[in-house]
Amino acid sequence: MSEPDPYRYGPPAPQPAARFSGPTGKEILSSTWDLLKQDRAMIWLSLLGAASGVVAFLALFAPGFVVARLAGESSEVSGWIGAVLGGMLTSVVAIYFQAALVIGANVRADGGTPTFGGVLRQAWTLKWQIVQWAIVTTTVGLVVRLVEERLGVLGKIIGVLGGLAWAVASFFAVPVLVAGRLGPIEAVRESSRVIRTTWGTSLRTTLRFGVVQTLLLLLPMGLVFVGVMFLFAANGVVPALAVGAVLIVAGVLGFVGMSAIFGAITVYARALIYRYATGQPVPGLHPSLFAGAFVQKKRRWRRS
Questions:
Q1: How far apart are CA 217 and CA 265, in angstroms?
Q2: From CA 127, how far away is CA 122, in angstroms rounded?
Q3: Range 201-222 average pLDDT
Q4: How confident is the model at residue 163 (pLDDT cuts 50, 70, 90)?
Q5: How far is residue 78's CA from residue 162's CA, in Å, rounded to a whole number?
Q6: What global pTM score does this model have?
Q7: pLDDT tens for residues 55-99?
Q8: 263 vs 33: CA distance, rounded Å
Q9: Dist. CA 93–CA 150, nearest whole Å
Q10: Residue 111 region, left (φ>0) first, then alpha (ψ -120 to 50), else beta?
Q11: How many other CB atoms are found less than 10 A from the CB of residue 94?
C-alpha cells in the first residue's frame, strides 16, 4: 500500500509566526545599565550636565532680566527675556553633555573604552552643531509656550500635540548629530526618517521606561517626606530633629544620584537603539531586546 501523498490537497497552510511582544522598559533599562556599568565615569557626565545647566541658566537669566529692566521693559517682559537667554545657554550645556554620553556609548559599542575627558573633547568638536541645535530647540519651546498662553484652551491642546510631535521627530536628533555632524534641519529630517522606517512599539517601551524611573524615584522622595514629618513632630526633641535631617539629606542625595543614573541610561539607551535601527553593531545587548522597540515596517503593496 502506497504512502499517502501529504500534498494531495495542496501544501499545508503556513502557520502564523509567534508574535514577539517586545522588551519592557525594565529589560532595556537593565540591559543598558549592564553596559553602562563598564563606563561608570559616564554617569558623572549626567550629573555634571544637570548642575552646569542650572548654573548656565542663572548666568544669563539674571543679566538678561536686569538689562531689560534698565531698558524700561516691564517685569514680565524682562522675565521672558531672561528666561529665553538662560534657556538657550541651558540647552547648549544639556546637548553638549548628551552628545558626550552618545559618543561614550558609541565608543563602548565599537569595542573601545570611553574616558571622561576623551568624550568631552570629542563633543567639543561638535560645538557649532550643538549651538545650532540649541537655538532650534529653544525656539520651538518658545513658540509652543506662546501658543499655549495666547490661545487659551485651544492653545493648550495645540501645545501638547505640538510638543509631542516635536519630541517624536527629534527623538534621535543628538545621536544623528553625533554620527553625521549634521545641522539642525538635517538632523530632524534624518531622525524623522529613522522613526518612520523603523517605528514599532517604541512608544510603549518609552512609557514603561518612564514608569520604572518614576517608581524608583518615589523611594528617595518618600525619605524626604518622612524626614519632613519627623521635623514637624519633633517638638524640639534633638534626636527626632537629627533623624529628620538625616532622612531629608539622604532623600535629596538619593534623588540627585538616581536622576543622574537614569539620565545617563536614557541617553545611552537612545544611542544604542539608534545604532540598532541603523544597522550598526550593539555588542552586549541581544538583538531580540530591541526587536520590539523598533520593528521594520512591512510594505503594504503586492506586485501585480
A1: 14
A2: 10
A3: 73
A4: confident
A5: 26
A6: 0.77
A7: 888 888 888 888 888 887 787 788 888 888 888 899 999 999 999
A8: 11
A9: 30
A10: left
A11: 20
The CA distances from residue 32 to 49, 228, 265, in Å, are: 20, 35, 6
**Hey, what's the cell of 114?**
570611553
Q: Give the residue carrying C-alpha cell 532595556.
A: 28
- Terminus-to-terminus CA distance in the chain, angstroms? 44
Distances 207 to 57, 123, 188, 202, 240 between C-alpha atoms, Å = 29, 29, 22, 8, 39
The three three-digit cell numbers of residue 257, written as one number: 544620584
Q: How is residue 63 written as a grid cell?
A: 543679566
Higher pLDDT, 274 or 197: 274
Q: Which amino acid is at 289?
A: L
List the one residue out of 182, 141, 131 whose CA is nearest residue 162: 141
**Signed CA dihedral, 206, 127, 280, 297: sign only:** positive
Which residue in this structure is represented by grid cell 518614576?
Answer: 214
- Residue 256's nearest CA partner among 49, 61, 59, 60 is 49
- CA 105 to the chain's CA centroid: 14
Give dist(CA 222, CA 230) in Å, integer: 12
Which residue in this structure is represented by grid cell 537603539?
Answer: 273
| Cβ burial 53-88 (10 Å sphere, 16+ → b, else e) | beebbebbbeebbeebbeeeeeeeebbbbbbbbbbb
